[in-house]
Specification:
With 201 residues, this protein is of the alpha+beta class. It has eight helices and nine strands. It has a single domain, classed as outer membrane lipoprotein receptor (LolB), chain A. It starts with a helix and ends with a helix.
Length: 201
């Protein structure tokens, strides 16, 4: 792709904004990132309105196709733990000491109606997921009331990183903004077993 852009510029004699060129070349696919890195960590905040109002701060650790997410309130108290594996999502409610399956986790995170487990890990790695197949499974009338927007900005050393997700479901009156504050990919593995134990009672 980069060679084609350079050839096009050479033959046309046109100039091009360097930011456009960097933006075109910096968006790697999920598979490309997995080939280059072994793990990814980061943090951010979720601002939600609707069935659940308020802010949740989160930090995540991801390795290959699995992601562990820890949520805390504005005072820094841990409230939820989420384990995302390729085919399912498990949530532990630390406040009420309960476990929730994927279908029940929707009560906390309404956007899970539209994203599958794999999509969550892709987002953690900074990749805009192909969520449209999931929307097709939803009633067409409901589908038309769902709005999703992905924004990119400078994050750590990445100039065009996936930084913000806007979600709105008019039917259910839910809206939220997921804002990533940091994301760091690494060539080292994470101790996944240690994280998994945190989900146990």
């Amino acid at each position: 792709m980069s060679k084609l852009i350079i050839i096009f510029i050479s033959f046309t004699g046109c100039t091009i904004n360097p930011d456009f060129l960097l933006g075109s070349l910096s968006k790697k696919s999920y598979s490309e990132l997995l080939n280059e890195y072994k793990s990814c960590i980061g943090k951010g905040v979720i601002d939600s309105k609707g069935e659940i109002n308020g802010k949740l701060y989160f930090s995540f650790k991801s390795q290959r196709d699995s992601t562990f997410i820890q949520f805390s309130d504005i005072l820094g108290r841990k409230t939820l733990l989420m384990w995302v594996s390729p085919n399912k999502i498990t949530v532990r409610d630390l406040v009420n000491n309960k476990y929730y399956k994927s279908s029940q986790a929707i009560d906390f995170f309404p956007f899970l109606r539209d994203f599958d487990a794999g999509n969550i890990t892709e987002i953690a790695w900074g990749v805009e997921p192909d969520y449209k197949p999931n929307l097709k499974k939803i009633n067409k009338e409901m589908n038309s009331h769902i709005e999703l927007k992905f924004d990119r900005s400078h994050l750590n050393n990445e100039k065009y990183a996936l930084s913000t997700i806007y979600y709105s479901d008019i039917n259910f009156g839910n809206s939220l903004k997921v804002n990533f504050k940091s994301r760091q990919r690494d060539s080292e593995y994470i101790n996944i077993k240690k994280l998994w134990k945190m989900l146990e009672y």
